[in-house]
Input
Amino acid sequence: MNQILKRLKVFALTLLLIHAFVGLANSDIFSFVHKDYDFVLRFSKGVTWYPELKKVTFFRFVLDRKGLGFEDAFLRLLEDMKYRTGIDPEVVSDAISNDILFASKGLDVNLMEFVAFDLNYYFELLKTLASNAIVVFETKNPQRLPRALSYLLSLSYKQVGANYILGDSLFCGTLGKYLVVAGSKQALELALKTYSTPEMQLAKTVRDFERLRSGTFLVSGYAKPSALKLELPGAGVVKWENAEQILFYSTVSAGAFNFTIEQKNKTKLTSKKTNDFVLELPHAWNYYMVINSQNSENVVSSIKSWFKGTEGELARLISLFEYFTAQSTNVYTSGRIETGEFLFIFENFSGKDMELQLSRIGARGDAQRQEWYLQLGTTQLHIFKYSGRLFISLVNKERYLQLERTRKKLKDFPVFNEFAKVTNYEFKVFIDLGDLIKSTVGFSLSSKLIFWSYNADFFTYYRIVLS
Output
């Protein structure tokens, strides 16, 4: 009887060991994230993606010494670290060459803020890590990395048993090839326990995590709608009322950085094919947006992004825009980002009482110039009709007609071809980054950003292409 009991104990122990081994064998950096967390972002294998990233014109400009020189600045920082502390730069370069994960609970995370080109931003993010947030590094040097981080973050360093404390509030622990940095002792302990307890892991409770694990992505992640804030240039803040969950992922290929945000919805939605005339606009600005007039919320968000005035002035303008949008098929926004000059165009405008609507909000007409003027604080808006379209802008009618006569149209430039191919959308935006960079910092380069949103069954997609 005793022999049978011993064998049963050995068998049970063997099963436990096999279960633990299999669990750890299937673990990766996502395994540190507890199921209560609501935002996860992973940078994957930077050393693999870096050569492709430098083929993207914009990133090459940011990184190379012929541009902003961020690569050289970072290497000088590591050499300075070695000179002052004796820490080999390879300790840091290895850590940023492999997987890096950020996860949080209960925070309002702005996704676009993670796309920063100032190293100080990332240092500050790590330095001020919230109590319910963790950053995990995959590295060959998990025990040496905390000392390097203390130098880069200008924080004190203390080893307590097997763990480390940076400053007063960053708690670090190691597990195999990983270093976990947490904003509190409790968050660190929870992350380490979650890694070895599959039923506690977010990746085990959200089925779509397997897509992120198996996919080849530079950046990937997951968010609950309540945790994510997304503000797109000129398009305002995205609302998530219909969302159940959000995945995001990116790749780099053929000289372009492709980023997708996939919103799983509670109800089915479909974007119809839209015919627009955006390519007929004069090439006079560095920002172009097209919105289907059925999406009045996007139109309101756009004017909020461009108009700088009081709440009362904005309210008057929004009421006017809502009326014009309802009487049009598409709405176009053109502008120069660096100066704030903007132009809204309402296509196929059919409103019969336009003059009455303008009079109600205090606009005055000029019969000779064939335009109306609306004074909102120090801003004077010009309102006029031309070729079946209604214009509201900081540009008067005479100047717009001059641009029509003297400037080439967007269709004359191959750089706009990809933009024209996007026909199923809720909105789409083209930003001429090359023009923006030249007008602000004086560098000449050919770079563009295209992003658009569309619905397909139970999903809404936001796609960004940077080249």
About this structure: Residues 30-208 form one domain.
